[in-house]
Inverse folding.
């Protein structure tokens, strides 16, 4: 009997505990959508990298304001950019998940979705994200890009209100004037400009030390292939029924590399371009040696024009049109994809307040939320005069000597990554005259044709993605090593066919088929 009563009591206790837990769960679920209203504070754990120009995110005014407005506190796991992958992999392996991950690698999304680690969002967007839903209706390409092959959405995107391009070829405008030349367009124009830089001593130091074309790695030299109607990777060929091609094995690419190798042999390309990092490259610009390069609008054109004239009188750089090759093609390959390949945010299975999390994220797609995350706090970080948003001197002429990007990084993530809309006013408020002219004359006019070549963000089925990654790990290494040798003259261009044969033997055709399948699926949505 004693044993019987012990078992009975144990059973009753178990039932009581289970009932309490169930009641608590039901109560929690009932309260979720009303959390901010009834005074209960929610804590969201978010993993996101911290860019070099940013302060720890708990110090940012934008999130302090949001906590007051929403009663949602964010506990940030904020490793520096260079340590993010290590921290991310550790978190995913540990099973101790945050509620939200900002910046998950795009190739991991479907994998972790199929494992149940991150949750599907299609129903949540319909129910709790009216602002994002509105954008998806206005801009169908957003919905197409974030919808996977299983017809589900798993991440909140980052996208531009007005998609644009970046990283044009950049030229020393003051040196063009010295040579009485116009902005170069064709390969012949560029060749003549580079010869002038090499031979006419534009830095006036009596030495033949000028570098006609430089950059932070061999990829900058390889980017010149666009003049031959080919991209340095996978692309869609508009004159071939939108078939997918892999640029580095195309005959057009061979023609381009032959020309680039000629430039290198003649000393028109930096002899150290293959080993230059950003610091080495910028050091050469600062020594008044570099005549042209490829660079970001804000990070090089605007930054160099703001700083270099202090040490190099008369220094000025400007963007140029996409290089026009022998057949007249001009393609601008550096497009700001919309949405971008960086994943704005995913929600993991650890999140106990999904409804509120989705509503919190969706706020950033509203006009009010977009202005907040892009521009900061009105009166302190920006002013609004009859609808015109302008950064204050805190950003543009920071009293502590911070650059505009660094100043923005003290109050918001609007200069890095996240689930939000990059509104047109943000770059316009920062752009200098040279950047505005570059966008207007040399990027926007080439956007429509360039979009026919540059692939959108594609989602791959899990098995295809695994095959793609495995093959490309070997292909990319071999291609990179060999293309460098062709350019530097360490491998004769006569060995091109052997190189292509080896790449095909590594099953590149299988990967091209995988891209074609994903691209066709994208176009059919």
């Amino acid at each position: 009997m004693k044993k019987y009563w012990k078992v009975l009591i144990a059973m009753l206790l178990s039932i009581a505990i289970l009932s309490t837990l169930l009641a608590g769960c039901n109560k929690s679920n009932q309260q979720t959508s009303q959390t901010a209203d009834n005074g209960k504070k929610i804590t969201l754990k978010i993993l996101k990298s911290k860019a070099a120009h940013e302060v720890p995110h708990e110090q940012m005014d934008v999130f302090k304001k949001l906590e007051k407005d929403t009663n949602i506190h964010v506990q940030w796991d904020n490793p520096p950019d260079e340590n993010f992958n290590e921290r991310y992999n550790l978190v995913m392996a540990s099973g101790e998940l945050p509620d939200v991950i900002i910046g998950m690698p795009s190739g991991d999304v479907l994998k972790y979705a199929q494992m149940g680690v991150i949750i599907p969002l299609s129903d949540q967007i319909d129910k709790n994200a009216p602002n994002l839903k509105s954008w998806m209706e206005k801009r169908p390409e957003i919905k197409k890009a974030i919808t996977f092959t299983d017809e589900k959405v798993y991440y909140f995107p980052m996208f531009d209100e007005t998609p644009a391009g970046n990283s044009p070829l950049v030229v020393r405008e003051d040196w063009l004037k010295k040579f009485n030349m116009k902005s170069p367009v064709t390969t012949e124009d560029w060749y003549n400009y580079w010869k002038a830089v090499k031979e006419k001593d534009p830095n006036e130091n009596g030495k033949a030390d000028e570098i006609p074309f430089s950059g932070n790695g061999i990829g900058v030299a390889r980017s010149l292939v666009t003049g031959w109607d080919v991209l340095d990777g996978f692309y869609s060929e508009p004159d071939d029924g939108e078939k997918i091609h892999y640029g580095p094995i195309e005959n057009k690419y061979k023609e381009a590399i032959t020309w680039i190798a000629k430039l290198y042999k003649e000393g028109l390309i930096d002899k150290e371009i293959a080993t230059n990092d950003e610091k080495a490259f910028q050091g050469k610009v600062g020594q008044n040696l570099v005549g042209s390069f490829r660079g970001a609008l804000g990070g090089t054109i605007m930054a160099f024009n703001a700083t270099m004239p202090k040490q190099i009188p008369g220094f000025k750089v400007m963007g140029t049109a996409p290089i026009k090759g022998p057949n007249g093609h001009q393609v601008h390959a550096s497009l700001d994809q919309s949405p971008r390949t960086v994943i704005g945010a995913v929600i993991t299975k650890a999140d106990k307040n999904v409804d509120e999390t989705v509503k919190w994220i969706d706020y950033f797609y509203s006009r009010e939320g977009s202005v907040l995350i892009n521009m900061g706090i009105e009166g302190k970080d920006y002013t609004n005069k009859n609808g015109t948003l302008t950064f204050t001197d805190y950003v543009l002429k920071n009293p502590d000597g911070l650059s505009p990007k660094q100043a923005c990084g003290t109050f918001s993530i609007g200069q890095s990554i996240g689930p939000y809309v990059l509104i047109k006013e943000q770059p316009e408020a920062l752009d200098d005259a040279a950047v505005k002219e570059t966008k207007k004359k040399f990027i926007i006019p080439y956007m429509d044709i360039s979009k026919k070549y540059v692939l959108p963000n594609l989602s791959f089925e899990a098995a295809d993605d695994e095959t793609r990654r495995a093959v490309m790990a070997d292909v990319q290494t071999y291609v990179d090593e060999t293309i460098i040798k062709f350019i530097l003259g360490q491998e004769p261009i006569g060995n091109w066919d052997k190189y292509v044969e080896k790449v095909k033997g590594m099953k590149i055709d299988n990967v091209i088929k995988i891209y074609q399948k994903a691209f066709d699926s994208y176009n059919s949505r």
The first strand starts at residue 42 and ends at 47. The chain has a mean pLDDT of 90.
